[in-house]
Amino acid sequence: MTDWPKLSDAYGSAEAVPALLDRFEADPAGVWSELMDRLCPQLDTAFPASFAALPRLAAIAAAREPDERRWVLLAAGPIVSCARRSAEGVTARRFHSAEIAELSRLAEECLRLPADIEDYTALLQTALAFRDVEVWDERLDDLAHGAYEVDCPHCGVDLFVAIGEDGFFSCSDDYASRDDVEKTPLRPADPSRLAGVGKQLYDMARADGQSELARRLSYLFGEAACPDCSTVFTVADRVIANTTL
């Protein structure tokens, strides 16, 4: 049995976590923010109590129908992503491997349901966390939000790479607040030539009926050019280079 008072969360002692998990089980959407404030604030920090909560989160998710478990998976995913950042987390991931495998299975069931691009991408990112796919388990949902911020690998200038409703281009100025920004079009990858995680994500999106996300993924794993120095680079490579693991 977990000795919660001896564990820590973002507020200190984790003695309040069991009752919070009970409330979360009854109302995942309504309690999600409060739970994450304690177990995974800013979605990038986890604590001993966070890892100890994984079995309960897996049980809550398993007890729900696929269309009712989204918020539970979105609670467990960031905790699992954070596990790689500490020795304690790596150990916890091994210790809870069975629960994480179950969460992975449950997430993949949810991905088959109809969803808008934002909800689907959030769940796909969570599924990648359970598979231990680095970077994209935290940075994939930027595709739904429309832009990545990276730097040029040659001249170092900060760049916006828009992929979505605003278009498909790179620029070195804030295109959201100015109309005269120079925009350099992106070059999408040929889907037939994608490999590795790019192919995996593209194929998953297509199989799940997410054609717009698949289109955006072809740009994410395609090429951009720096508008300042004309250096051509792969967008995904710069996202990886600008991500702290």
What does this structure look like?
With 245 residues, the protein is an alpha+beta fold. The chain contains 13 helices and eight strands. It has a four-stranded antiparallel β-sheet. It has a two-stranded antiparallel ribbon with strand order 1-2. Strands 7-8 form a two-stranded antiparallel ribbon. A hairpin with a 6-residue loop joins strand 3 and strand 4. Helix 4 runs antiparallel to helix 5, helix 4 runs parallel beside helix 7 and helix 5 packs across helix 8. The longest helix has 15 residues. The chain starts with 7 loop residues before the first strand and ends with a helix.
Q: How do the strands line up in the largest sheet?
A: 3-4-5-6
Report the strand count.
Answer: 8
Our count of helices gives 13
What Rg is obtained from the alpha carbons, in whole angstroms? 19 Å
Q: Helix proportion of residues, in percent?
A: 40-55%
Question: Unreliable stretches, pLDDT < 50, 5 or more residues?
Answer: none
Going by helix content, strand content and strand pairing, the class is alpha+beta
Mean pLDDT: 96
Largest sheet properties = 4 strands, antiparallel
- Terminal residue distance: 32 Å
What gross morphology would you assign? elongated
One letter per element, helices H and strands E, the order comes to EEHHHHHHHHHHEEEEHHEEH
What proportion strand?
Answer: 5-15%
